[in-house]
Amino acid sequence: MSVTVTHSTHLRGDGLSVAFGDRRVVADLGLAVAPGHRLGLIGENGAGKSTLLRLLAGAELPGAVVQGRIVRPARTGLLLQELPFRPDDRIDEVLEAAIAEVRAIEAELDDAAAALAGDASEGSPPDVAAERYARALEAAERADVWSVDRTREELLDGLGVGGLGRGRRIGELSGGQRSRFALAALLLSAPEALLLDEPTNHLDDDAATFLEDRLRAWRGPVLFASHDREFLDRVATGLLDLDPGRGAAVALARAGASARVPGGRDRALAATAGTAFGGSFTEYLAVRADERERWRHQHEVEQAELRRLRHAVADTARTVAHGRAPTDRDKFLKHFKRENVEQAVSRRVRNAEARLAELERTQVARPPAPLAFTGIPAGANALPEESGMLLHLSDVSVRGRLDVPALRVAPGTRLLVTGANGSGKSTLLAVLAGRLEADDGVVHRRRGLRVGLLEQDVRFAEPHASPRAIYERTLGERRAERVPLDGLGLFAARDLDRPVGSLSVGQQRRLALALVIAAPPHVFLLDEPTNHLSLALAGELEDALGGFPGAVVVASHDRWLRRRWAGEELSLGVRTFAV
Question: Where is the chain membrane-spanning (predicted)?
């Protein structure tokens, strides 16, 4: 089996399937994105979003069996969550590599123009040269070759990496800087179509707004996977949900009273394998909830009807006789009506049996229980309020990265740390966790304090080990039995024993979350907790943090999360102040 690729200004996939062994990640999926449109991919971690983007871009999928047909522009760019740079690559080298194809298009235009002029001066037929020049000019206009140098500076500044020295090595940059630099390099290469995997991870407000403006002005098709709720609302012209089971819900919604959003427009559309939606993400949430309620209601109605029909088949004869004792008149007429009564009974039995058989064949399955985070387990993490400060920072600094005059973390603290890229949010969490020593100042920790840190970037040393094995080895057998991994609502049963290296980035971060909350710490530090996590889990985690018995410190760019935050805030960057 293979994938057939043809070129067009549109991005389209028909009958796309990807399987790794007996596990199908993408199954008979169809999608289409026209130039100037932006389709957002959503779905649970592991639903196949990154795999689909790789497939459409023609990237390698080792060990996969693929099939289907892809139509895409000849120059299609892909942004991955795992970056392609080597640590010793220099920034200027990466930038030049990014625009190499644009430079080649410009060179071809110059050569074509020279050939056309040469044919004209020699009196040769210009048809072939003119056609070559027209093609080169069209390609140059699409790539905007005349403004590449100006665009380079705009992109680097807009994404917050303009101040990085061009001679620096990639390995010298932070994870967030590398991600933003990769995005700048991709946009600079001016592809005709964009495939983006979590493009707003590591972007602050200014950089996210800059990217939104760029994508809304993009002339070609854009397909992106994102868990950024604000970004989805602002950028996507449509959504494609890859979660299995949605097709049945949409079919029920359309068969009955159509699922509607404010204004009365029916915007849920059945798509092959996935579910396409033509509205905003906020509208989609309401429609999805309505679809699931219709599905649940239809299932309950049909189950009630099945019970009634089964009873009717077993008891039809008694029902026909009305359950009363025969009268003298009944006895007198019995001989004459016996045959009619028997026929009526037989007819009702047959009708009930036919209806029962049809409904048993076509009944709607019970809605599958969604993977739902069960919350943070109870543990011996609560400290009495009178125990005083858990963490206390005085005049703490990490040269060139962080400067905090004072910070106190008490039991019950709810602190949101915000600031632009490079303002020191991750550095502050590393200092609080004891993973980074401050250059100056005092960090006081309460004796016996347990601090848990959910890091932005997760790497497991044994990619062939399963989530279950890593969980049991990290926590110990007794704790793993008391708080089993499959009871946290973070993993589907099918993924518990797969190699962790084969899981999506979001699934690996789910495992990192499980390792922290299974033995709840006194202080829970979360660095960009909604990065890579599914939309559903991000919301569930936010809700769970509200009832967490220990202190919580969150560093986040997530605009959705920040709007809902009800606790204290610490802004780093231009002005650092104490809480």
Answer: none
Are residues 423 and 560 located together in one domain of the fold?
yes
Q: How many Å apart are CA 267 and CA 288, to the nearest integer?
A: 11
96 lies in the same domain as 179: yes
Q: Which H or E run includes 28?
A: strand 23-33
What is the Cα–Cα distance from 19 to 24, expressed in whole angstroms?
Answer: 4
Looking up residue 536, the CATH number of its domain turns out to be 3.40.50.300
Give the tens place of pLDDT for each residue, 215-234: 999 999 999 999 888 899 99
Tell me the sheet residues that pair with 193.
Answer: 76
Interval 87-126: pLDDT, tens: 888 888 888 888 888 888 888 888 888 888 776 555 556 6
Residue 478, CB-side half-sphere exposure with 13 Å CA sphere: 0
| Residue-number span of the structural domain to which 526 is assigned | 385-572
Residues 419 and 567 in one domain: yes
Helices and strands in the chain: count of H runs, count of E runs: 17, 19
Terminal-to-terminal C-alpha distance of the chain: 60
Helices (H), 198-327: 205-216, 229-235, 246-255, 281-320
Are 424 and 509 in a shared domain? yes
Q: How many CB atoms lie within 10 A of CB 185?
A: 25
- Flag whether 544 is in a domain: yes
Q: How many domains does the chain have?
A: 3
Tell whether 394 and 354 lie within a shared domain.
no
CA 70 from chain centre, in angstroms, equals: 22
- Supply 7's token pair: 């070129």
Considering only residues 80 and 329, tell me which one the structure prediction assigns the higher pLDDT: 80
pTM given for the model: 0.72
Of 532, 30, 543, nearest to 269 by C-alpha is: 30
Q: Are residues 423 and 504 in the same domain?
A: yes
